[in-house]
Structures are given as C-alpha cells and as structure tokens.
Design goal:
Elements: E1 11-17, E2 22-28, E3 37-38, E4 57-61, E5 66-69, H1 70-75, E6 83-87, H2 96-101, H3 115-137, H4 140-150, E7 155-160, H5 166-170, E8 176-179, H6 180-191, E9 203-209, E10 214-223, E11 229-232, E12 237-239, H7 243-258, H8 266-283, E13 290-292, E14 304-305, E15 308-310, H9 313-341, E16 347-351, H10 358-369, E17 374-376, H11 385-396, E18 399-403, E19 407-415, H12 421-425, E20 431-432, E21 438-448, E22 453-455, E23 460-468, E24 476-484, E25 505-513, E26 522-525, E27 532-543, E28 550-557, E29 560-565, E30 567-570
Parallel strand pairs: 1-7, 7-8, 9-16, 11-18, 16-17
Antiparallel strand pairs: 1-2, 2-3, 4-5, 4-6, 9-10, 10-11, 10-12, 13-15, 14-15, 18-22, 19-21, 19-24, 20-21, 23-27, 24-25, 25-30, 26-27, 27-28, 28-29
Length: 573
Amino acid sequence: MSMGAYKGKEQLVIGMDVGTTMLSFSHLRDGDEPRVNMIMRWPGQPAAGGDCKLPTLVRYDGNGRALLFGRAAQTNEDDLEDTYLAKWFKLWLHPSSMRRQFNLTPPPLPPNVTVKDIYADFLRFLFNHTRGWLEETIGGNLRDSLWTRFESTFVLCLAIPNGWDDSQQCAMSRLSFVSEAEASVHFAIAHAGIGTWLRADSAFIVTDAGGSTVDTVIYKCTSAEPTLALEEATASECVQAGSAIVDQAAEQLFKKKLRQSKFDDPDTLEAMVNDFEQNAKREFDGDSALVKTGTNFTDRPRNITKGRLRLTRRLQRRTRAVFLGPMNAIADSIDRAVRRAGRQCDALLIVGGFAESPRLKSLLRDRLSAQNIRLITIDQPTKKAAAEGSAYWYAKRFVVARAARKSYGVACSVGFDSSLAAHQARAHTAFTNLAGNKRITGHFDLLVTKNQIVQNDANVRIPYYKLSRKKPQFADFHAKLLCIDDENPGYWCRNEQGYLLSGFEHTLTLKADLSGLQRTLKPHIDLVTGQTYWRVNYAVEVFFGQTMICASVVWEEDGQTKKGPVSVIAYSV
C-alpha cells in the first residue's frame, strides 16, 4: 500500500526506539511520498556499515560521569576500572504494575545517577552521532543545507510502550511520543502489502514483540480510499513478556547448569547470554540449539564440546519452558484484546525483535488458526519497526481515534441531593458555599471511560467557577487529573477524610495562567446574607484521543470565546 504524499511544511524527522536502540530519519517535503532511512555506523560496532542496532548501554564512573556508550560500554574496550554499567534502564520507567507481572527487577542504577540522567546522557550521544552521520552520508549542497536549516527545529519522535502513561512520557518532555504499536502499524502499512486485503470495516491485530514489553492493538479500518483511516477497536494490551524476560530466564538456566564447573564465572555466563540472545533465541524451534560459551573447553558431563553447549533433550525441555511463560502471556494478551473488541479480525501482523523467533510464530499460528486469523510476517527486519514507523507516523498519522486505557476524571463537589442514597450517607459532610448552595465533596466526575473510543480532535470540557468575598487577583490554576483501571469507577473518588479511595491515582496536574480572566469577574449578591461576592466561570478542555493528553483553558469574554494554554505535568515518575 502506498503511503501517499506528505502534506505539510518541509521538516527533518528523527524516529527513535530506545529498547535495543535504533534511529531512523526522514526528510519530509510537501507533495513527496515519505521515505525513511535508518541511522547506521554506530561507534564500536563491528561491520558497522550495515548495522542499525545499538545496545542500550551506558558505562559510568563512580561520580556519575558517562564514559562509554553502546557496544563500547558493553565490552569496556578501554579497560576502565571502577565503572558501572547502566542497562535495561528503560524498565525503571515502566509502571510498577508491569514490572510485578514477571517479578522483573531492573538492574540497580550506577551511583550518583538517576534515570533522567541516563536518558539525558544517552540521548545526547544519539543526537551527536546522528548529526555526524547525516553530515557525512548526505552529500553535496543538500548535506549543508539540510542540517543547517533543521538543526534547531527537527522533530524527534520516540516510540514508547503502550503501557506507559503520561507520567512516563513527561519524564522525557519536549519530544513527540507515539506508542510502539502505533508506530509499528505505520511501518506495516509501508512494508507489509496490506493494501491487498485491507478494506473499510475490516479489522486486524498488530503485535510489537520487543525486548521488554509486548504491545498489542486491534485496529478497525474506517476508510481505505482515498485516505486510509484507522481506529483502535479497544484499549491496547501491554505485557512485560518481551525477549528480555527470556534472556533473564536463560541466564538463570545457564547459572544452574554451570555451577561448580570450570565455566562458572561471570565472563563465561555473559558470553553465553549474549550468544543466546543473538543466535539461539532467534533460531530455537523447540528441538535443537547450540550456545557458545566463549571458550574452547570441553565438559562432556555438561554437554559442552569445544566451548559449545548442546541443548540435550532434557535441557531442551527446560529451554522450552524458558520461552513458554512469556509466549503464553503474549498469546493470552492477544486473546484478551480480541474478546474485548468483540469482532472478527482478519490478520495478525507481528513485528519487533522477538517476532523473529520461530517458536513464538509457531505458537501464535496454532492459537490463532481456530479463530480464522492469519499470521502475517513482513519481508523486512521487523526489529526496526518502532524506530522507522515513528517517522512514518509523524508524516501520515493514519490513526484517527484511540481507546482509553483507563478511566479518567477529576474530584469535585456537587450540589447536595437528599434523595440520593450516596448523598444521604455523607450528609454530615455537606457545606454551604458563598452563593448559598449546599454542596458535598469527593465526587468522581468521570470524563473518559476505560475502553472508550475517543477521536483525535474530540475534547471533554470540565466546567469550573471561583467564588470570593473579595475581588480576587488570579494567578495559576491547578487541577488534578485522576485515573483508575476500571470501566465502572463508582460515584466517589475520595473518602470522607479527603483521601483517595483504593484504585484511584493522581496521574497528571493541569496548570494554567488565569490572569486573562481578570476582566470577566462579576459581582453577585448572596440571597441569604445580602453580601456581595465575586464569581468567574471558565472551563478546561482536555483531549484524550491523541498520543499524549493535552488541554487548554477556555472562557467567555465580551461575547467571544477565549483560549489559553494548559501545562500537563506528571505527578510522579
């Protein structure tokens, strides 16, 4: 299927996937079909000319200073002493609920270093290499003009797990974010030839099986011609069952196998895990595999010949078990999404580094065949799907509606209604405001329900008002956005003491400058006391259907609607 021409201003877009790190770039020009290329030649890489994959590693000294990156950090090629390797640091940004699923504990961070520090250092390294690579590989006058013109305005699109919320995204602000599955569907549109079977009202599944997380989204095609338009059919699934889970399980298996042998040392174990990750894991079909130990030694009782561990029938069963837990979790997450969507899906497109596993593809093919769902693979290295797809996403944005992963709302007060049982139970907490109205606090004003499909441009308006005895001077406005992983969150979000009820989380703070409302203040008379008070009305519009939650403040002034910006701030990371 043709991507179609890009429509918009000329732009340089850099797409990024920070798992096993890969970067892409696209020089977008109005009227041209987008073309995306991968960034190559990473420092320290053997045969670097054709390798777009970079290990996500940073080596630090004890003072928190970054020394080496990528492959150089892995091998410690400078033989630096008293250093610390930061790896799998992406896991520290995963919500704790995701980490608990497989008891996956991220390696400790180096001393005097935070997750934000690591990302800042790593992104700086990526940026510097990308700049040099573009200057070196794009020749002629175009080389000079491209980087010179876009050095301060290029767009960086980061593909993130579907399970991340806005707290994780705000940890790396000033970037454009797209979910890994949404980036992958744009990659699939460019490379999978889905135009031969994709029709309006058809549905298909996209699963991005990466290193740490596996994301699954079901898309419904609402229009195929002349413009492709996709909607999420239900909330996405995100399970921590990627290939890193398999690597950790294999590491424990090798530790047990090598215990009290000549191979029982950290270097040999690391060599075996690396070889397993790069070779055996991708080739293992359930029957046979070899794992190199990085030595030439032989230990026949342990089935090691000339440094190669042969997986015997007994060990093969254990190896199959290494794969089985994460693979079943992936298949189960796909089943959950299909059941929630409640409709027939024509195909499953599977991408990501773990998608190259023949064992995973075989299991999914068997599970899906009973539902008449075809497994479709892509004739491209799909490990680059998120990085390349994020650049295509910026250019085309085929997804026009998304499903809410949680229910969102705000805590508020409501008018007291003695006919409601919920209000009767809290009648003793009611209060009377300056306007003489009896109200009660702790109500959850539901804005978006979990699994609700929200259009890109649809907003939810939250009305607010402010009362004051004296004419107030407006400054900043703050509102706490709450969420809960429940389609039926209930009437209350706070108990009588004002604390959040179980299940509710403060996910974001909406902050706005209300000084522009000063001219809209109007005096009112309290009908009970006869005293004057001041009132101002305004609203906050929140957009839940985009790749990130965004908002604006709205008010009426002299018969005209005015709008102002709202900052969306993470509560915690």
